[in-house]
Amino acid sequence: MVAAGAALADEVGLANLTMGALAERLGVRTPSLYKHVGGQDDLNRRIAVLAMSQAADAVGGAVQGYAGRDALAAAARAFRAFVLEHPGRYAATIGLEPSGPDDPLAAAGRRLLDAFTAVLRGYEVDPAEVDHALRMLRSLCHGFATLQAANGFQWSADIDESFEWLIAFADRGLRAR
Hints:
It holds the Pfam family TetR_N. By secondary structure, the protein is mainly alpha-helical. Helices cover 71% and strands 0% of the residues. It is built from nine helices and no strands. α1 (2-12) packs across α4, α5 (68-85) crosses α9 and α7 packs across α8.
């Protein structure tokens, strides 16, 4: 059911995902869904956990065997592809706080951060600055991907070229530290 909710969120947008729409998609009555989830907030949270886990798998798998700029490019491309392919489920992850260290959302979030932290090992980032570097990478990748998913780049420059420019910019910045 969570996977069906995530797929529907990708199609219609997270803001338009309702228990009623999901029930209709699944061919059941809405009250039947409450046997599986506690309501809309619980469904959204479960979708966020799924999305964070899938993003962690995508980025973690992409960086295997790479270092430095190659790892950065692989991670950034995998993250962007995930957001573009799954905009609704990715939206569920934004601003959601784990309820504690044992929350599945916290575990999935750590896995995604670990994948990006692996990228940073190819650079001489001071351990005291790793959090700043991670925030920079997340901001660049998240910002670009969510703007692209929302059709926010409507001028003539090639979007893929712009993304490669972003990767090169981040690489130069990380090397300069």
